[in-house]
Design brief:
Number of strands: 9
Radius of gyration: 15 Å
Structural class: alpha+beta
Strand content: 15-25%
Helix content: 25-40%
Low-confidence stretches: none
Mean pLDDT: 93
Number of helices: 4
């Protein structure tokens, strides 16, 4: 999983260029990343960690339970973020409408540059000799070159 480091203030100011939007959670075998409002993304990661503890680090179960809360809870519904979570078996995207989706190929993109990074990763995936980390780096570079809200300070975590 790869994430850029740009945090913007409003629509025109780069406030921070070295944010960390991707981190290990749970027992260290799960990676979570977010896009959107930083405080909201961090809140969601903390909530997911609580669900993981409650459900013995079963990622799918914890993700579904978080999505239910996110959709139903008056406070959580106001959060402006998306999440990607992954372990060695599954990659999921979660959002505030209660969706928990698993892509067919494990490639997911969120945030303003997410579609660019996802398209680039899908194009690079079939090229022999490229590791998943190299694909992620190249995809994030392409997204950073195209999207003004995505920068080249990339954090990568692997499961």
């Amino acid at each position: 999983m790869a994430g850029d480091g740009q945090a913007t203030l409003g629509e025109a100011i780069v406030f921070k260029s070295k944010s960390v939007k991707v981190r290990r959670i749970g027992n260290g075998n799960i990676i979570a990343g977010f896009a959107g409002a930083a405080a909201d993304g961090i809140t969601l990661i903390e909530r997911l960690e609580a669900k993981l503890k409650k459900h013995a680090n079963q990622l799918k179960r914890a993700a579904v339970e978080l999505a239910k809360d996110w959709r139903m809870d008056k406070y959580l519904r106001q959060l402006q973020a998306y999440m990607i979570v992954a372990d060695k078996d599954v990659s999921l995207v979660l959002n505030g409408t209660g969706e928990v989706m698993e892509p067919d190929d494990g490639i997911i993109g969120i945030g303003s540059g997410g579609n660019y990074a996802m398209a680039a990763a899908k194009a690079l995936y079939d090229i022999e000799g490229l590791s998943l980390e190299e694909i992620a780096k190249k995809a994030m570079k392409i997204a950073g070159d195209i999207d003004i809200y995505t920068n080249h300070n990339v954090t990568i975590e692997k499961v």
